[in-house]
Structures are given as structure tokens and as C-alpha cells.
């Protein structure tokens, strides 16, 4: 028996033969060419083919894993035709008389090094993206076949690492789980694995040997264990765990249609976070009560220019109609920080997480905000809409945004456009400032939704994009939980509801705490709905509330 330890990034136990990923090999040769026009045309043909392949991958990813997964390949499409990238290749071919394969390879190295040297972790991650895009173009130029799995049976796939394009192209019916030498928990591959429900372990280093190919392997994505040729007792334990997981999934299915109510009758609304109209099917199939966060910025990220009012209206209308009367909370444009869009021409900021972003952009550029509000109110005639403003820090910001809502409603009435008079207005509580003055803000709106990712970041002065901070970024920190309790108390005193739409909402170790402090709604990914419902139904709030609140407000140091 051989035991290898890695890091689990996607839960689940899987058993099967070990198979090493067969990657297409493209050897880049360097030659001097005289027909520069012909060589440039050769590159352009390969670039076009790569763009077509990436478009197909985006659609495949959208069907299998949703809009966020598809966005990876749409980003790669943009990178493949980036002007600076293209001009560098053109210069190498036309001025340097270099063959297309070598020109692409040199440009890939240059751009990858540039991204890797940046301070921003998000931009550093683009280094892998530009190499992936360039490898695809080089493979086309070399006539190399796509890599993959040549096995008659499903396998545990091992690789040095897997690029997003490689992961999506794989035949999922042949994949039981995967192991990679490198990677990180926030890499594209790990995200795709979790979204697709594939058990995954990363970071095993050089422990995987070629001679292990074909041998039976068991992986446990919850703890990062890889066992090759397991002894009978170990094998039995892991197979029992796999069976328990299968039974648990079946039991969760039986929860559909049952109320989200604790043993002592406390109700909790369980909603979903989505990023595209295509995600509505997952919301309904997991029996969520509604949509607690629809990230409207997907419309802007997927366009080469500002989306028109009609484009936005059609997207919002589709979601509201498909939800058939269930509440849909649509967050107004939230870009800036780690979500940059070229055509907005935002200035480079040293600290964009605290710069011109979200509601600040909307108030500074009202023409963008008014277009979105018109589309939202027009769509409100087709379902139960709530509008939510992100990144609030002051009462005046909320009042200014509400004035713009009233202006839009007045215009629509004058134009004879239909819209609902029953649209709730809410704000995200994601800054300490908003939490501290939540008593005042509660008088201005109909609901609060707490964005715990940013609330934790700002409260702890800890960049949530910086993987090196590790244990310092602690969403369970007493300061964060006390702020949430303050928000709940102030919301309820003013007769409004309060929810959580950050990742913390799906943390089952905090469900008792959220119920005890008075959270009314949890909005989570569609896959988290049924486990959360089970957890809620197992809790007796009356038995745990006093102890939890006493611990939370205790003056004992952590």
C-alpha cells in the first residue's frame, strides 16, 4: 500500500485505476522565414481556429458548470485577440522573420513573465492563462491532436496540472476524480472541479510515479489522501465512506418541498446566488425559495461595450419569468476591485478594493446606472423583483440611489411603460461603516444582505485575494460575527429582514449562530441548498441560542 498526501480541493471519495493525462505534444522549432505575409496569414488562421475552439468550450462549460466556468474561456478568447499580444507576434514574424510557432512561444513567455511579476494575485494568475491560450495556438500550428483519456473504463486522472481548457474538454463519463502535482485551491481547475462535482486533490508534488499507472487508487477529496493498492481494512473504510456519501445525497433529495424550519419552529429562507440566467435551472432543481443574489455584472463582463437597456431588460425579464413568482434579488452593477472591464476605462488604482467600485461608479457615472435601473424596472412587470445596491458606506449614498430609482419610475410612467410598484430596495452590508450605522440605514431600505467576503476583508484589514495571508483571513472572527449581530438587531428594530449572501452562508458550522443572532435568509450556491436545509431542520434554536450569544458577547480573548 502506498499513501500520498496532498490537499483536497473538491470533496468526495473515488476509486478506480490511475491514469496519467496524455497531453498533446507540440515541439516548437525556430526557423527564419522569408514569406512574412504568408506566415502572418498562417498565424491568423490558427488564431481564428483557437477562437472557435474556445467558443465551443465556453458553451460546453456553461452547460456543465454554469456561467462562471464559461467566463474562463470567454476571457481566453479575449486574450487570444488582445492587441498587444497580437502586435508582439506580428512584430516577431514580420520584422524578425521568425516562424509563427516560435513567435507565439516567445510572446507567451514575455507576457507570462510580465503577469507573474505583478503584485496583484489576480493578475499573477493570468500568467497561466496566457500560456494556455498560446499552447492552443501552437498546437494548431503544429497540427498536434488534442490530449485526453484513452481508456475503456472510468479512471482517476493524474497530471502535473490541468489547464481550464483541458479540464472542460475531458470526457466526464471517464473521470472519477483527479490528482495534480501542483495547483492551488483557488485555481481555475479547482473551481471547475468543485462546480462539476469531481473529487480532486492538488499539490502532491513528485510523489506520483509513472510506474503507478493502471494500479487501483482511492482518493478522498475531503482530506487530500491518495491511497494506491489499499490494504483490505483501509479499502473497506473508504468504500463505506463512499457509500455513506451516496446515501446522504439520496436523503438530501427527499428534502425537496419540505420547509426550512428548525425543530422548534424557527423559519429560515434559503435562496441561491447566481451569475447568469442560465443558472436558474439549478436554482429550481435544488428547490431554493428564490434568488438572493443575481450578479448583474455578468452582462457587462460578457460584452465588448456597455450593454444596452434592451439587452439588460431581456436578461432580467428571463430570470424573473423563469422563477415564476419567487423573489429575485438583483444586485446593481458591482465592478472594480478584482472585476475590471476594459471599456469602462477605469483609472489604475493602487488599492482598487477600496477605490472606485460598485455603487460609487454608478453614482459617479449616472448614465450607466440609469440605463440599468430602467431595464430593471421594466423587467419588474414579469416577476417579483428586489433591487440591491452594493458597497454602501453612508446614508446619503442610499438616498441618492433611491432618487435615481424615483426618476426612472417617473420617466417610465410618462412613457407608458409597464413596471411593478412593489419593488423592494435593499443594500449590501459589506463594509464596517454600513454595519456600524445599520440603525440609520435600516430606516432607508426594505432589507439588508450581508456580503461576508468583503465584510471580513475590510473588518480584518486582510486582502481576501492574497493566498499568503491564510489564517489571518478568518470569517469566523468574533469581530465579524458581532457586526452581523448588530446588523440583525438594527434591522429587526426597524421591521426589515436581513440575509447573508457571502460564502459564509453555506458554512454549516455557523448555521446555529446565524439562527441565534436572527439572520432571516441565507443565499448560497444551488448545490448547497439541500445540505443547508438538512442542517436547519436538525437544529433546536431555543436550546443553543443563549449559549451561542453568551460566547459571542463574552469578553474572553480568543
What does this molecule look like?
This protein is an alpha/beta fold. It has 3 domains: 2-22 and 148-252, Phosphohistidine domain (Glucose Oxidase, domain 1), CATH 3.50.30; 36-142, Orthogonal Bundle (Enzyme I, Chain A, domain 2); 254-552, Phosphoenolpyruvate-binding domains (TIM Barrel, Alpha-Beta Barrel). The chain is 47% helix and 14% strand. The chain has 21 helices and 16 strands. It has helices spanning 36-65, 67-80, 83-95, 100-116, 121-142, 164-169, 188-196, 232-253, 280-285, 298-301, 309-322, 359-364, 366-379, 395-415, 432-436, 438-441, 452-460, 478-493, 511-517, 529-538, 541-552; strands at residues 2-5, 7-10, 13-20, 155-159, 175-180, 200-202, 216-220, 225-228, 269-274, 291-295, 327-331, 384-389, 424-429, 447-450, 497-500, 521-524. Helix 1 packs antiparallel against helix 2 (67-80), helix 1 packs antiparallel against helix 3 (83-95) and helix 1 (36-65) crosses helix 5 (121-142). The chain is globular and about 75 Å long. The two termini are 42 Å apart. The model has no long low-confidence stretch (mean pLDDT 86).
Amino acid at each position: 500500500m502506498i499513501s500520498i498526501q496532498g490537499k483536497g480541493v473538491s470533496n468526495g471519495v473515488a476509486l478506480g485505476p490511475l491514469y496519467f493525462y496524455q497531453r498533446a505534444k507540440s515541439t516548437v522549432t525556430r526557423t527564419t522565414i522569408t514569406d512574412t505575409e504568408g506566415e502572418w496569414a498562417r498565424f491568423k488562421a490558427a488564431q481564428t481556429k483557437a477562437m472557435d475552439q474556445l467558443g465551443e468550450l465556453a458553451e460546453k462549460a456553461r452547460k456543465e458548470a454554469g456561467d462562471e466556468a464559461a467566463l474562463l474561456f470567454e476571457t481566453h478568447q479575449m486574450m487570444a485577440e488582445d492587441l498587444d499580444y497580437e502586435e508582439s507576434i506580428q512584430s516577431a514574424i514580420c520584422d524578425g522573420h521568425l516562424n509563427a510557432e516560435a513567435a507565439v512561444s516567445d510572446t507567451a513567455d514575455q507576457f507570462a513573465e510580465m503577469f507573474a511579476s505583478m503584485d496583484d494575485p489576480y493578475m499573477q494568475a493570468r500568467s497561466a492563462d496566457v500560456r494556455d491560450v498560446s499552447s492552443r495556438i501552437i498546437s494548431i500550428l503544429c497540427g498536434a491532436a488534442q490530449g485526453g483519456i484513452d481508456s475503456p473504463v472510468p479512471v482517476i486522472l493524474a497530471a502535473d496540472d490541468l489547464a481550464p481548457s483541458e479540464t472542460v474538454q475531458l470526457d466526464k463519463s471517464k473521470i472519477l476524480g483527479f490528482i495534480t502535482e501542483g495547483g492551488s485551491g483557488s485555481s481555475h481547475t479547482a473551481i471547475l472541479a468543485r462546480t462539476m462535482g469531481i473529487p480532486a486533490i492538488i499539490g502532491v508534488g513528485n510523489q506520483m510515479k509513472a510506474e503507478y499507472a493502471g494500479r487501483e487508487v482511492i482518493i478522498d477529496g475531503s482530506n487530500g489522501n491518495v491511497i494506491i493498492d489499499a490494504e483490505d481494512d483501509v479499502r473497506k473504510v473508504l468504500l463505506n465512506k463512499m457509500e455513506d456519501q451516496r446515501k446522504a445525497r439520496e436523503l438530501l433529495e427527499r428534502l425537496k418541498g419540505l420547509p426550512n424550519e428548525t425543530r422548534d419552529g424557527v423559519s429560515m429562507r434559503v435562496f441561491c446566488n447566481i451569475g447568469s440566467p442560465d443558472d436558474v435551472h439549478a436554482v429550481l432543481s435544488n428547490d431554493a425559495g428564490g434568488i438572493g443574489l443575481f450578479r448583474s455584472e455578468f452582462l457587462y463582463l460578457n460584452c465588448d461595450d456597455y450593454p444596452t437597456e434592451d439587452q439588460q431588460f431581456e436578461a432580467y425579464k428571463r430570470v424573473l419569468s423563469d422563477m415564476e413568482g419567487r423573489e429575485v434579488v438583483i444586485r446593481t452593477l458591482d465592478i472594480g476591485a478584482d472585476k475590471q472591464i476594459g471599456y469602462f476605462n477605469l483609472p489604475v488604482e493602487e488599492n482598487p478594493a477600496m477605490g472606485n467600485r460598485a455603487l460609487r461608479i454608478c453614482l459617479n457615472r449616472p448614465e450607466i446606472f440609469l440605463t440599468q435601473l430602467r431595464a430593471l424596472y421594466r423587467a419588474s412587470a414579469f416577476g417579483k423583483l428586489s433591487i440591491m445596491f452594493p458597497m454602501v458606506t453612508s446614508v446619503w449614498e442610499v438616498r441618492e440611489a433611491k432618487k435615481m430609482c424615483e426618476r426612472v419610475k417617473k420617466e417610465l410612467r410618462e412613457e407608458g411603460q409597464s413596471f411593478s410598484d412593489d419593488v423592494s430596495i435593499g443594500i449590501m452590508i459589506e463594509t464596517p461603516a454600513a454595519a456600524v450605522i445599520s440603525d440609520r440605514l435600516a430606516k432607508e431600505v426594505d432589507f439588508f444582505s450581508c456580503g461576508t467576503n468583503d465584510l471580513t476583508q475590510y473588518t480584518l484589514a486582510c486582502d481576501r485575494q492574497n493566498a499568503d495571508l491564510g489564517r489571518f483571513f478568518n470569517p469566523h472572527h468574533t469581530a465579524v460575527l458581532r457586526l452581523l449581530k448588530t446588523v440583525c438587531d438594527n434591522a429587526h428594530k426597524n421591521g426589515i429582514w436581513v440575509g447573508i449572501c457571502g460564502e459564509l452562508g453555506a458554512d454549516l458550522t455557523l448555521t446555529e449562530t446565524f439562527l441565534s443572532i436572527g439572520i432571516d435568509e441565507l443565499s448560497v450556491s444551488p448545490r448547497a441548498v439541500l445540505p443547508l436545509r438538512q442542517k436547519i431542520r436538525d437544529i433546536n434554536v431555543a436550546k443553543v441560542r443563549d449559549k451561542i450569544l453568551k460566547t459571542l458577547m463574552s469578553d474572553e480573548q480568543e
